[in-house]
């Protein structure tokens, strides 16, 4: 069964993983985030749901 032979596919997977982690990831992480996260506070506490059968 050829799919059980990991010889060519393992090296392809390793090369892809290394190229992503060392070449692409620093470029992607260097971008400036456009929306900075902010802390949201709840203005009002929601009222509990009233069930008609209780």
TrEMBL record:
GO terms for cellular component: mitochondrial membrane; proton-transporting ATP synthase complex. GO terms for molecular function: proton transmembrane transporter activity. It is a single-pass membrane protein. It is found in: Mitochondrion membrane. Keywords: ATP synthesis, CF(0), Hydrogen ion transport, Ion transport, Membrane, Mitochondrion, Transmembrane, Transmembrane helix, Transport. It holds the Pfam family ATP-synt_8. GO terms for biological process: proton motive force-driven ATP synthesis. The chain crosses the membrane at residues 6-24. Belongs to the ATPase protein 8 family. This is ATP synthase complex subunit 8.
